[in-house]
Amino acid sequence: MYHHYKEDIALFAEMGFKTYRLSIAWTRIFPNGDEAAPNEEGIAFYEDLFKECHKYGIEPLVTITHFDCPIHLIKQYGGWKNRKIIDFYENLVRVLFTRYKGLVKYWITFNEINVILHAPFMGAGLVFNEGEDKELAMYTAAHHELLASALAVKIGHEIDPENKIGCMMAAGTYYPYSCHPSDVWAAYEDGRKEYYLVDVQARGSYPPFFLKQLKSKGYESFIVEGDFDFLKENTVDFVSFSYYATRVSVGQENTEVEYTPGNIVKSAKNPYLELSEWGWQIDPQGFRTTINNLYDRYQKPLFVVENGLGAIDLPDADGYVIDDYRIDYMAKHIDAMRDAVNIDGVEIWGYTSWGCIDLVSAGTGEMKKRYGFIYVDRDNEGNGTLKRTPKKSFNWYKKVIASNGEDTSNN
């Protein structure tokens, strides 16, 4: 996109985008992460990109850190295990909020912050030493990210009171495998473990069960006096999330249970749901349930910032893809979201799909796992012209946007 962003944004505008969610590359602003002054070329690139969005009336929604800790900070400081990384993050957000004041007002502090518990290198740049307590390292890094997120909220509001700063989680309701009490409890426990980081960002405090767990394990060493007050004083303006699938929890010993890979987090297979080509359980009704769970829990505006179907697309000789399977997936999910708004009364600020254009999958590192409305001529080995070709879903989504989600029919 570095070389094609004007072409891409023009295509987004043709679809009717009102907002475009993108992520800053930390290393474009501070190549090593710990420099005193930012890289002006990187600053200029994003400034031009944001201006290009505004040319078409598209509001940028910017993720500050998207699985993106500079490798120098990992090697030199140990990634987010080191409290000093908060200082480098502060430098980053001060530059972003200052330089892009008036160009960007919707921000997300960390992408899918709960992924740190499942993929710690991706989520926080964690590399474990032999014999290291991995759980303690993850909780320490997560605490530092929470403090950094709160700091971003504070600074962002000081620099521009118009800024709206949110958090983000990888969401998806946990179902119990059966009505056996141990399965129900397992689903409850799995769910609240995923929520606990957003509990801090949205409510301003750790949930009691987590503090009890820290104390029982002697894990309180990373908490410094004043941390809790700072977190309480700087909560987010909105809660954003990704949603691809629901999960199923098993609490009792059951050797007959079949599992499926899911989205980073494996899950027991739900016999009532279809699977994507990558084993993700397709559940539009679960989307509505998840939306309501989040709104009931936090009572803050929601923003759906990722939802979509990763699939193998087979283009014709002209690069055109007839992706009715994607249209079907997204139509059912948008219908469920509309019900959450119109019937359940949930406040949702917006919806951005993942991804609007084909890109390399973060989960598997593949190009063949495609999500976009626009086909990009590139394969897993890096071959291809990078030519952009709208898929069938391109014109379908154009109609969906024009109707503000009311018309999701495929005709």
UniProtKB/TrEMBL annotation:
GO biological process, one term: carbohydrate catabolic process
The keyword Hydrolase is assigned to this record: yes
Keywords: Glycosidase, Hydrolase
Gene Ontology CC annotation, any one: cytosol
Protein origin, superkingdom: Bacteria
GO molecular function: beta-glucosidase activity
Family assignment from sequence similarity: Belongs to the glycosyl hydrolase 1 family.
NCBIfam families on file: PRK09593.1 (NF007158), PRK09852.1 (NF007356)
Name of protein: 6-phospho-beta-glucosidase
Organism of this sequence: Trichococcus pasteurii
